Amino acid sequence: MDTTAKQNLGVSAYHWLKRDIIRGAFTPGEKLLMSGLKARYGLGIGPLREALSQLVAESLVVAISQRGYRVASMSLSELADLYDARAQLERLILELAIQRGGDDWEAEILAKAHTLAKVTEVNSSEELLDVWDTRHKAFHTAIAAGCNSPHLLKVRESLFDQVERYRHLWLRETVFSAEALERKRREHAALVEVILSRDAPRAAEMMREHLMTPVPIITEIMRRRGLA
């Protein structure tokens, strides 16, 4: 097998395993047995070890000395810290974006908001989750892009990845109802309006409120499931 093919297998293993950890296919603290992973993904040890090493670096997997790997644990203290850090950083990035973003930035926000608002016609709840989540991430990324700071955006992406496991607990309980989708649509529309008016203090406060909304719901879910 050539180098490119090996790299592609490693990338595939990483994306599949990361998605399954985020979506809760593996429980926090669960041991990731190589035999089980090989059977689940149809891949060899090499690509799987590469994927696991990358996920260790992203704090989604923990390496156990001489004994393999486990899914990282979850806790209410980590939930609170991750969401607060993300909200603080997003607030700073938004303020910079409002200062630095031009007409193209505004147009991209409007385009992504329009696409997100049209997530209604899908065939299953799983498809709804995939489509809405992809478009929602693109919407917030379009807003953040106006800060014009690759380094800040890289830190933002890292925090977003670590928040995802917690966020998906909330998504699965809230995003499937028509009422929830309409509530989010109005929330996003109001946020866009304030951003485009260049009211940085108000936009920053609205963004923080928007990002912190799931925390009480996630807290309740974690307690109910014995994760806290």
TrEMBL record:
UniProt cross-references to PROSITE patterns, sorted A to Z: HTH_GNTR
Pfam family, one: FCD
Coiled coil: none
Residue ranges occupied by any HTH gntR-type domain in the UniProt entry: 7-74
Top-level taxon: Bacteria
This protein's UniProt keywords: DNA-binding, Transcription, Transcription regulation
An annotated Gene Ontology molecular function: DNA binding
InterPro entries: GntR_C, TF_FadR/GntR_C, Tscrpt_reg_HTH_GntR, WH-like_DNA-bd_sf, WH_DNA-bd_sf
Name this protein carries in UniProt: GntR family transcriptional regulator
Species of the source: Halomonas ventosae
Lineage: Bacteria, Pseudomonadati, Pseudomonadota, Gammaproteobacteria, Oceanospirillales
